[in-house]
Amino acid sequence: SDGNPKSKIMLIGEAPGANEDDEGLPFVGRAGMLLDKMLAAINLDRKKVYISNIINYRPPKNRRPTDEEIKRYLPFITKHIEIINPKILILLGSTAMNALIGNDVVISKMRGKWIEKEFGNCKTSVIITFHPAFLMRQPAQKKMSWIDLKMIRDKKTNLKIK
Ligand code: URA
Fold first, then answer.
1. Atom of ligand 1 nearest to the CA of 133
2. Residue 65 Cβ contacting ligand 1 at under 6 Å
3. How crowded is the C-beta side of 36, counted as CA atoms within 13 Å?
4. Band of the pLDDT at 10, cuts 50, 70, 90?
């Protein structure tokens, strides 16, 4: 994990890749560079947000985490959300969405909506949006991503988050 632990905005990805594994920080590789650009587009600096992943080690050969791994790590990420206590929680991609919202939803239908959720004592506004690694493979989806980013920008203004 990385960023300001006092941040009111938390982002959660999937799992570290090779670069993240080397540096011990989330989103420092190519997907991370795109994430930085996405945040910059709505005047957010990664130093002002808090970033973590569902799984905290790199799955062999970059495979997606299994249901068993997600289940094993779920208590840690939920506790992590409680400790950071963000006002806005951004879930990047379907792994984070399925882990924290449920397996019965699809990202194409769930992205771009605010969902009020409670994680222990943390009441937060959750938004699901596409993972930057997905956007690198499917650049046509960047227009949907931009809609979501503007929603985050507006929510941040409404909540008076600096
Ligand atoms: N992709 C993720 O989901 N998390 C990272 O930290 C890096 C790439």
1. 1
2. no
3. 10
4. very high
Supply 132's token pair.
């930057």
Residue that has been written with the tokens 């988050």 in this structure: 161
Parallel, antiparallel or unpaired: strands 88-92 and 114-119:
unpaired
Q: What is the reported pLDDT for 6? A: 86
Pocket of ligand 1 contains residue 15 by CB under 6 Å? yes
Residue-wise pLDDT tens digits, 88-113: 999 999 999 999 999 999 999 999 99
* Rounded Cα distance, 66 and 54, in Å: 11
Decide: 53 in ligand 1 pocket, CB within 6 A.
yes
114-119 and 2-3 as β-strands: parallel, antiparallel, unpaired?
unpaired
